[in-house]
Design brief:
The protein is of the alpha+beta class. It has a single domain, classed as Alpha-Beta Plaits (2-Layer Sandwich). It contains three helices and four strands. A four-stranded antiparallel beta sheet has the order 2-3-1-4, covered by helices on one side. It is globular. The N and C termini lie far apart (36 Å).
Length: 116
């Protein structure tokens, strides 16, 4: 009997930041926020993106991959959001949203070779 593959969870965070804090926001995200999250047990990866200038929606997007949805309920996870710098920067965020997604079995197992 085949062992059932554990489904991963993704957290997609979208946000804008006041322009006068944008440089500090990116420095915080790259040097404190993401590195701390990657040390939390169960956080598998994090990727950041910026919306292209000619498209609408929140400017910044981060996609976190978690082993499961329990990760976001841990003490280590909460500690990342409680640093003085995190508290300061979270007060500068606008239009933010959080979406938790569950992996669909099999779908992400496919890879496409676009060069064929």
């Amino acid at each position: 009997m085949q062992e059932k593959k554990k489904k991963k969870v993704w957290l997609i965070v979208q946000m804008d930041v006041d322009p006068e804090y944008e440089e500090e926001y990116n420095r915080w995200y790259d040097t404190e926020h993401i590195p701390m999250f990657l040390k939390v047990p169960g956080v598998l990866s994090a990727k950041r993106a910026k919306v292209l200038d000619n498209y609408s929606g929140p400017r910044y997007i981060t996609i976190y991959e978690y082993a499961d949805d329990k990760v976001a309920k841990s003490r280590e996870y909460a500690a990342v959001l409680e640093t003085p710098w995190a508290k300061k920067m979270m007060g500068k965020l606008k239009n933010w949203s959080l979406d938790f997604l569950e992996e669909m079995p099999g779908y992400w197992d496919y890879q496409y070779d676009l060069e064929k």
